[in-house]
Amino acid sequence: MKELLLRILRRKEIVVIIITIILFLILSIGASSTFLTLVNFESLQASIAPNAIVAVGMVILLITGTFDLSVGSVMGLAGAVTALVVSQGLPAVPSILVGLGIGLSFGFVNGFLVAYGGVNPLIMTIGTLYIGRGLVNAVMRGELRYGIKIDNPSFLVLGQGKSLGLYNMFWVMLVVVVLAQFLTLKTNPGRRLYFVGSNYEAARLVGIKVKRTRLLTFMLSGLLAALAGVLATSRFGVSSLYLGLNLELKIIISCLLGGASIAGGQGLVAGSFLGVLFLAMVVSVFNILEISPYWQNIIVGAILIFIVSLDAYLVTKRKKALGEI
Amino acid sequence: MADTSIRQRRRQGLRNVDFGQYSIYIVTAVAFVFLALTRGNFFRYSNIYSLVFGLSMEFFLIVGITLLLIMGEIDLSIGSVFAFAGIFTGFLMWELEFPIWLAIPACLVVAGGIGFVNGFLVVRFRANSLMITIGTMILFRGLADVLINALKGITYPSEYRAIANFRIGGVNFTIFLMLALLVILEYLLVNHASLRKLYYIGENKLSARLYGVRVDRVKLTIFILTSVAAAIAGIFGASRSGQTVWNTGQGLEFKMITAAVLGGASLFGGRGSIVKSLFGLFLLAIILNGLVMYSVNPVWTNVVVGIALVVAIVFDSRVNRGSDKL
Which of B130, B145, B268 is facing A294, going by the closest CB pair? Predict the structure, then answer.
């Protein structure tokens, strides 16, 4: 069973890797003047880093069999509040902690009610999606609507500064991704996530603290979403009402592309990173081919429908092979 | 094991009190009376009439969602179908010069196709209806935007605009339509096998199948019905506004789910009633109306809707929960 599982996993990721490489080649050959320039590479870095960080939290939730639709709003709210406190003169580090604290508290509310209240994660996180987005609008009302400008250099260095040729935020992302990949595969608590996702009841019966796991994974997801919001705000130097809007679906699509499943129990952090990379490439293609954003939505929707159907088909097939249906 | 028996006993106790059975009526009545007493503008014929008129359009959305929730399924694409249908009908009449008696059926057929795709993928591949319909939601929002972009900001032809304003005895016919359908559907749900089946499917799909319910076919039919009903609502909505509007119907799906859950429907399936869902919708409308009457800054609207949703769902999980399934 484990081998079968691994084979499906591997196959899906290999598909994404191959498509990504093909896309990359097409882009470099077909549109070499625009794609391979340094500017594009830099903007790719900046667009990938926050999404990949959010995707780490999301893929861990997917592995345990839930998901979080509020990440986009949490990202936006953390960015807005951090920008607000920085612009009020609070030093960089405490400001960042304030932003991250918002993420943690949203994650706590989500996780607590889902784990201990038995609330459906879909509706719960849609609720906090609304609340978070509403609070963004409430924080940034009046003149602040057009964005809160930040001119604290020690805060801006996070998103705009570079070390060893890469943006600092990109380094942060690499650390998060590598650390999460290591923790989920090589440590016991990490591997327990997979047990919880593949069979919640069995995991509970063998003594895994499933509720606490739920709570902690939701808090991690909120924290990482907030981190992404802080980084993105630092990168742009100004907060935006639209930061993180409609991000949640893109992140879930990326994770599914990277081998995670709505049914839980599978997925890899590295896979979700590949998914984010893939989606960023697709958007690059759209932009180079000058496809309007409306058509981008249509194509993303179609990709999602395809991936979800494929995912469901594979899960059903596996269950049939195991005699569960 | 001890844990489950305690939980069962607790549930039993709550069931004896019949908690939640009438709560939606009580809460709605309290909110209504409160606003009527504190705000002079609220309890006026024009205000109440416009609330009910709005309700009669959204009725078509809540019907589909409620029927799906009873079966333990969900359709998040209704808001996009709502927008798409209104604009698509306008597009057929404006660009392709379809007469109205052809444009509306054509649009409804297309909407039926959307429902078919949703239902087919859910039934055939056992796909998660939530994720599938998020896909169709994004896809048809995109198509609606493409059409709106092609049409620019036009005003719809007068015969299209006339639909929503058609009145019988000074009252919009959509209100009569709503009342008639409400009585029929609620009767069928409670007393007739054709819709009674939905509860069996929601309670336990396998045993429903064993007792001879064609689960897949029923699900497919309800998915198609939901999309067609959402399209009807969209046509009314576009007819009422009279012109192309960006972002129509955005977030409507979540509003409908909130309303249905407020009205006692459960995401776990097996529960729900169209009358109560409609009251949930009415309660939301009253709350939003009340926010305006108390001149609360509109930026707080989303926060209030979100909190209402969370409160309703926590309540649902504590009181109505059937089992541990997601």
Answer: B145
Q: B316 contacts in A (CB within 8 Å)?
A: 119
**Taking CB atoms and an 8 Å cutoff, what residues of chain A touch B149?**
292, 294
Nearest to A121 by CA among A169, A187, A177, A71: A71
Q: Look up the ipTM and state it.
A: 0.78
Return the number of other C-beta atoms located less than 10 Å from residue A3's C-beta: 7
CATH code 3.30.70 for B23-320: no
Decide: A169 and A236 in contact? Cβ < 8 Å.
Answer: no
Q: Do the Cβ atoms of B300 and A134 come closer than 8 Å?
A: yes
Nearest-CB residue to B143 (from A141, A200, A298):
A298
Which CATH number is A196's domain given?
1.10.3470
Question: How distant is the Cα of B126 from the closest Cα of chain A, in angstroms?
Answer: 6
Cβ-Cβ contacts under 8 Å for A153 (sequence gap 6 or more): none
B125 and A316 within 8 Å at the Cβ level: the answer is yes
**Distance separating alpha carbons of residues A270 and B136, to the nearest angstrom:** 28
d(C-alpha B273, C-alpha B296), whole Å: 32
* Spatial separation of the C-alpha atoms in residues B81 and B114, rounded to whole Å: 8
Give the lowest-confidence range in A126-135, B115-124, B203-212: B203-212
DSSP result, A150-206: ---HHHHHHHH-EETTEEHHHHHHHHHHHHHHHHHHHSHHHHHHHHHHH-HHHHHHT
Contact B321 A262 (CB under 8 A): no
> B71 with B218: CB under 8 angstroms?
yes
Task: Tally C-beta pairs within 8 A across A and B.
Answer: 145
Tell me the whole-structure pTM to 2 decimals: 0.81
For residue B318, give the chain A residue with the closest CA. Answer: A117
- Interface contact flag, B125 A297, Cβ < 8 Å: no
Extract the tokens encoding B6. 């305690």
Helices (DSSP H) in A31-142: which residue ranges? 32-35, 38-63, 71-87, 92-115, 121-139
CA nearest to A131, candidates A106, A161, A107, A111: A106
Give residue A299's Cα distance to chain centre: 20
* Among candidates B138, B145, B267 on the partner chain, residue whose Cβ is nearest the Cβ of A300: B138
- CA geometry: angle at B203 spanning B200 and B209, to 5°? 50
Ranges of chain A whose pLDDT falls below 70: 1-17, 19-20, 23, 27-28, 30-40, 324-325
Strand residue runs (E) in chain B: 167-168, 171-172
> Closest-CA residue in chain B for A264?
B326
CA B64/CA A123 separation, integer angstroms: 18
Chain segment A247-281, per-residue pLDDT in tens: 888 898 888 888 788 778 888 898 899 889 888 87
Of the candidates A123, A133, A135, the beta carbon closest to that of B261 is on: A123
Q: Which of B130, B299, B307 sits opposite A138 (nearest CB)?
A: B299
* Chain A environment of B76 (Cβ under 8 Å): none
For residue A228, the distance in angstroms to the closest alpha carbon of chain B comes to 22
- The residue type found at A189 is P
pLDDT digits (tens, 9 = 90+) for B149-199: 888 878 888 888 888 888 888 888 889 889 999 999 999 988 888 888 888
Q: What are the structural domain ranges in chain B?
A: 23-320
Domain that holds residue A27: 2-322
Number of domains making up chain A = 1
